[in-house]
Design brief:
This protein has about 425 residues and is of the alpha/beta class. It folds into two domains: about 210 residues, Rossmann fold (3-Layer(aba) Sandwich); about 180 residues, P-loop containing nucleotide triphosphate hydrolases (Rossmann fold, 3-Layer(aba) Sandwich). The chain is built from 15 helices and 14 strands. Strand 12, helix 14 and strand 13 form a beta-alpha-beta unit.
Length: about 425
């Protein structure tokens, strides 16, 4: 199948061709026809499968089929909700890229930046709004956005929005929208909450699934390196220099550990940057840009900050700390092995994390290969310590040691994923 077989307008096909694409990915080939038919849809697709174009292209096609009356003010006809600022920005870029030969206007709305420029853009009139739930509701509260004319609602990475505690915000937004509309929901994993959400908003949906649920990419080589918690930083620095890694995305459970690892890497001469919820949007954007340009070799991120990062041909993902939610492992390693490219995912696992490892292996239905690096053999006499969860927890023993292995007290920094109550700001 070619893009020319998908009943897209010449303007869209021209934009697609200029991006160098001729053949749609599986999710695009399956999703686009259903969306063009006007059906609600539930799509299960991991990151890197081309899902953003999978809804952007048909959305633009549907809008283009209705003539624009220049005498009538523009109204918000499409609302795209995303979990993070980065993903909102990337979806907005996709809308501009594929819609550059069409006359639609879009606005990107998220927190962490001034609200006045967003208000000004909305006042000028837009057809498409890409937003994070919290900032969108700020505009609703201030009366600066009118959602009464929305024809299509797209929930991108819905599982992550629910994980981040946005379920009440999502339901509030839905209650404001017109009853008659097309609904598209994209999710990499399927929890009970996702199923409940689908049942409440999707009407006889088409089902599109391009990978088995809660599975990891077959293009990603996965490996576990066993090491003591206190030796992880030194081991990681050794791996970077030994293998001459030039671009690595590293995951930690906590903001504190992300900062500490990044600082350590800088001290040993490895350019790095950390991104997490405490960083300003400008700092996060610069760190990502520097990483893509090769100015920064190592990008250290928490799960929430890294969600939706679009990095072409990323060769390596390292789990400096395993996630306490097994599904997050799938999200993490999905950052590599994208769009047909091979990738490598390495997890540094200490004795405290063995239960997390078992949970991940149960989820992905496979046992991961174990390895031990000479000079960094784990001490078999060390007994596992529980990794505290909740407010002020989540760090584990690995966060309580300096790179030299010396204890730094018993304070545990960071926190588990917030509960699904109230609005969160990320």
């Amino acid at each position: 199948m070619l893009f020319t077989d998908l009943k897209l307008s010449p303007a869209l096909l021209k934009a697609v061709t200029e991006e160098g694409y001729t053949t749609p990915t599986p999710v695009q080939a399956q999703a686009i026809p259903f969306i063009l038919e006007g059906r609600d849809m539930l799509a299960g697709a991991q990151t890197g499968t081309g899902k953003t174009a999978g809804f952007t292209l048909p959305m633009l096609e549907i809008l283009s089929r209705k003539a624009i009356n220049p005498k009538v003010p523009r109204q918000v006809r499409v609302l795209i909700l995303t979990p993070t600022r980065e993903l909102a920005a990337q979806v907005g870029e996709s809308v501009k890229t594929y819609g550059k030969y069409l006359k639609f206007k879009s606005a990107i709305i998220f927190g962490g930046v001034g609200i006045q420029p967003q208000i000004a853009a909305l006042r000028q009139g837009v057809d498409i709004v890409i937003a994070t739930p919290g900032r969108l509701l700020d505009h609703v509260a201030q009366g600066t956005i009118d959602l009464r004319h929305v024809e299509m609602l797209i929930l991108d990475e819905a599982d992550r929005m629910l994980d981040m505690g946005f379920i009440k915000d999502i339901r509030r937004v839905i209650s404001i929208l017109p009853q008659k509309r097309q609904n598209l929901l994209f999710s990499a994993t399927y929890s009970d909450e996702i199923k409940t959400l689908c049942e409440s908003i999707l009407r006889n949906p088409a089902i599109v699934e391009v990978a088995r649920r809660n599975t990891s990419s077959e293009l990603v080589t996965q490996k576990v390196i066993l090491v003591d918690c206190a030796k992880k930083s030194v081991l990681f620095g050794h791996l970077v220099k030994e293998h001459k890694w030039e671009q690595v995305l590293v995951f930690t459970r906590t903001k504190h550990q992300a900062n500490k690892l990044s600082d350590y890497l800088q001290k040993i001469g490895v350019t790095s940057a950390a991104i997490h919820g405490n960083k300003s949007q400008a700092a996060r954007t610069k760190a990502l840009s520097d990483f893509k340009l090769g100015i920064v070799k190592i990008l250290v991120a928490t799960d929430i900050a890294a969600r939706g990062l679009d990095i072409d041909q990323l060769p390596h993902v390292v789990n400096f700390e395993l996630p306490n939610i097994a599904e997050d492992y799938v999200h993490r390693i999905g950052r590599t092995g994208r769009a047909g490219n091979e990738g490598e995912a390495i997890s540094l696992v200490c004795v405290d994390e063995y239960d997390y490892l078992k949970g991940i292996e149960k989820l992905i239905h496979r046992k991961l290969d174990r390895d031990i690096i000479a000079g960094f053999e784990p001490d078999p006499t060390i007994v596992a310590m529980p990794i505290l969860q909740g407010r002020g927890g989540g760090g584990g023993r690995g966060n309580n040691h300096s790179p030299s292995g010396k204890p730094q007290g018993q304070k545990r920094d960071g926190a588990r994923r917030p509960s699904n109550s109230g609005r969160k700001s990320y």
